[in-house]
Design goal:
It comes from Thiocapsa imhoffii. By secondary structure, the protein is an alpha/beta fold. The chain contains eight helices and eleven strands. An eight-stranded mixed sheet has the order 1-2-4-3-5-6-10-11, sandwiched between helices. It is globular.
Length: about 250
């Protein structure tokens, strides 16, 4: 059973779906899923939905949600500002704690969502781990990738994958990177990567040279955000979701 809901600041409500633990005596854990950019989130939300259902059966509460001006949350797509995404994650964490009674949360973020999750984790003591799924390694390289498929929409905006994005967001993207995002994060960080990712070689080299206590897993799944964007059609990254579930249910 899931519970669709709106939460957050009045006039800027966020849309979410709560997956309550279905068994008696829940594990006292909660999970907030942090989306990537909207055009990638369309293809990944099915995996997050199945993960939420599966975690509920393991006595773990979870919350999926759309950032402001994305998906079903308040605001039009041309109003989306990446700078507000960490605050939206804060709202989601607080909402899950109220709904479920949990006192600590885990964040699961994919692509840019993983970097925003790390930013939030740096500032909060109730985030006990971040699972970074195919995190963006280098913002400049990611910006170049986005611009390959971007078309002008109107002054100050581009269309990326059928979704309008303000050019101001692209400037912020260029400033982001995984090494910078992870600095100062005190909680556990787990990382999932695929050799299909163009950044895989760079990511692997960084993991090998980094002294940071990152647990990592290499999976052979196809990249979930590169699949057919129609919800329910994109293939489920079974190996990656199995790893995530194992990490979240360990020691319960």
């Amino acid at each position: 059973m899931t519970l669709p809901l709106f939460f957050g600041a009045s006039g800027h409500e966020l849309y979410g779906v709560y997956h309550p633990a279905v068994a008696e005596g829940h594990a006292g854990r909660g999970v907030v899923f942090c989306n990537p950019l909207p055009h990638e989130a369309i293809a990944t939300q099915w995996a997050f939905r199945l993960l939420g259902d599966s975690l509920a059966r393991e006595r773990i509460h979870s919350l999926r949600f759309d950032y402001r001006a994305t998906g079903d949350s308040a605001g039009d797509s041309d109003e989306m500002l990446l700078s507000g995404h960490p605050a939206d994650i804060d709202y989601a964490i607080n909402e899950l704690k109220v709904l479920s009674g949990v006192t600590s949360v885990h964040l699961v973020g994919i692509r840019l969502g993983a970097l925003f999750a790390l930013e939030v984790a740096r500032a909060r003591s109730d985030v006990v781990s971040v699972i970074a799924w195919e995190p963006v390694m280098d913002g400049c390289a990611y910006h170049a990738e986005l611009m390959e498929s971007a078309t002008p929409w109107r002054t100050g905006y581009c269309d990326v994958g059928g979704l309008v994005i303000a050019e101001a967001n692209f400037e912020q993207i260029k400033l982001l990177s995984l090494p910078a995002a992870i600095q100062g994060v005190q909680c556990r960080v787990d990382l999932i990567a695929s050799p299909h990712n163009p950044e895989f070689e760079q990511l692997g080299a960084w993991l090998a040279s980094s002294a940071l206590p990152c647990r990592s897993e290499i999976v052979e799944d196809a990249l979930p955000w590169k699949a057919d964007s129609e919800v329910g059609v994109a293939p489920i990254p079974a190996q990656a979701t199995r790893v995530i579930k194992t990490w979240l249910t360990t020691s319960i």
